[in-house]
Amino acid sequence: MAQMNKKWVVLCSTAITAVYAAGYFTTETEAAMPPLPHHTQVSIPTNDISKNNNPSNVKSTYTNKHHISPKSLYKDGTYTGMGNNRRGSIEVSVTIKNDKITDVEVSHFAMHYSESDIAGLPSEVVQNQSEQVRNVSGATYSTRAFQDAVQNALSSAQNV
Amino acid sequence: MKRTKLYMDTAVSIQIVTGKSTSEEAVTQKMNQAFEAFQKVEQACSRFSPDSELMSVCQQVGVPVSVSPFLFEPLKFALEIAKWTDGIFDPTVGKIMEYHGFNRHYLTGQSIESPSAATVTYRDIILNEQDRTLCLQKPLVIDLGAVAKGFAIDLAAHELKEFEGFVVNAGGDLFAGGVNDGGEAWEIGIQHPERKEEMVSTVLLSNEAICTSGGYERKSAAEADVHHLIDPKTKRSPKEWVSSSVIAPFAMMADAFSTASFLLGAAEGQRLMEQAGLQGILITSDLQLVRVGGL
């Protein structure tokens, strides 16, 4: 590998160090202890945006697709949902805490399609190439099917 | 062991090659910590979540605000690349991206519309290294799409470095650590920009990252001919490259340089990679492969 431009390498490695130096990342021992309140991955639309406001008159506006109510929208817990695309189906498990999605894990990937499809790489191509080629750069998988699966899970979590 | 979760509008897969002596609980714990890196970076840097650290900071103009390293570090890196490329790469491109329809949260469908001054550049963001604050000179929207994912990959890789081998793959931008099951370097394919099911090339990586910026995956819903890589000066998507893959010792570096070389176009993009001593594969709009750095 060619000689690297040190400036960029140093910037990257100090960036990682800064996260640990600030104590933002749990160490192994801390991880074994009861978890601290979690940052949430995404927010779910609610009409209570006042907590995000500040005295500045510069504010963002957010539009919601769905009808919303002031009480909690979703029950806490982990819910599964399905999504489909032309390659097959995807099952996700969505974890909800205090009306926030805290985690989305792909729990099952299309019945008769290999998981390498996630990189747009059908099984026959894998077989023709080296067995080791399972990772492909430049293959951003559309999250549309995942999004459907998440919406499906959210509908079963709804607090009605 | 391999698991997949969703973060940053991308399926993030982590696979770990474990030695016989490693207990399953130990692997699971490290795996969870690696995923947690994505959660923390997304929570800090998302342009689509009203309650992200980034969006709350963007509501305060003219005042220095303390920020966490999950936001400070990738932003600092992005601003350095912006200086280096004279603003062709510019993290203040967020409002232009919103305008082109990249304004919807991938999970909730919630769209966002943010205030912004008419003309903004990276010079409108002042970072103070001493007290680690950020100060916006004008209302603007910061987009860290070209660095945040890379930074999360690097943090996740840092959590996994003790294993014999691992791959952190966030939608095709990835870090390959150590060796694969067979004790060899990881063989990584580079996707064909038009025929998704083919690869144009493969590379062997060990303790290195590769990121690909392509104009073929995320198209604007609002406007034909525009994809998610936008030149802030012309407000359009450049056309000289269709794909730019960069190999680097860190994913944040590979991520930023693949985007920057894509935006700079043919001659300048290639020169940028050579200046930084990086290897990569660029693909021209007539599908010619250009190998850089002796790859």
Description of the molecule:
- The complex is a heterodimer of chains A (about 160) and B (about 300).
- Chain A has 4 helices and 6 strands.
- Chain A has about 160 residues and is of the alpha+beta class.
- Chain A has a 4-stranded antiparallel sheet, with helices on one face.
- Chain A starts with 5 loop residues before the first helix and ends with a helix.
- In chain A, about 25% of the residues are buried.
- The model of chain A is unreliable at about 30-60, about 65-70 and about 110-130 (pLDDT under 50).
- Chain B is an alpha+beta fold and about 300 residues long.
- Chain B is built from 7 helices and 14 strands.
- Chain B has helices at about 25-45, 55, 70-85, 95-100, 150-160, 250-265, 265-275, and strands at about 1-5, 10-15, 65, 110-115, 125-130, 135, 165-170, 175-180, 185-190, 200-205, 210-215, 240-250, 280-285, 290.
- In chain B, the strands form 3 sheets. In chain B, strands 1-2-7-8-11-12-13-14 form an 8-stranded antiparallel sheet. In chain B, strands 3-6-5 form a 3-stranded antiparallel sheet, covered by helices on one side. In chain B, strands 9-10 form a two-stranded antiparallel ribbon.
- In chain B, α3 (about 70-85) runs parallel beside α6 and α6 runs antiparallel to α7 (about 265-275).
- Chain B is globular.
- Chain B starts with a strand and ends with a strand.
- The relative contact order of chain B is 0.14.
- The chains are: A alpha+beta (about 160), B alpha+beta (about 300).
- At the A-B interface, α1, α2, β1, β2 and β5 of A face β1, β2, α1, α3 and β4 of B.
